[in-house]
Amino acid sequence: MARIAGVDLPKKKRIEYGLTYIYGVGLKTSRDILAKVGISLDKRVHELNEDEVAAIRNELQDSYQVEGDLRKKVAMDIKALMDLGSYRGIRHRRGLPVRGQKTKTNARTRKGKKKTVGSAAK
User: Fold this and answer.
1) 44 C-beta neighbours (distance < 10 Å), count
2) Of 6, 11, 22, 112, which is most buried with the most CB atoms under 10 A?
3) pTM score over 0.85
4) Residue 122: band (very low, low, confident or very high) from pLDDT cuts 50, 70, 90
5) Residue 45 carries which DSSP code?
6) Would you say residue 120 has pLDDT above 90?
């Protein structure tokens, strides 16, 4: 089992897709890493030997910010927006969409389950 950046990669998947299980590594980054290290994209994760895993791990540490460090950076960036009181920060604080989406009918992912607000009986 290949364990890179604290993530167990799925054994049966091709390595180019297996690396995308690491937070901060997409398909393009995965292919760039494999090209730089010199590993075939067709290889499966369970077919990697220790030297190849170590080469991928070293390349990730040297050139990319992934997993915990990246999560911390993103959280700090959002906190900075909220502290500034910018429009985006206020939207984050209220739990509303940040990037200009309409909220009258959609935005259930950010707003949560619908709460019906009606008039009280007289």
Assistant:
1) 14
2) 22
3) no
4) low
5) G
6) no
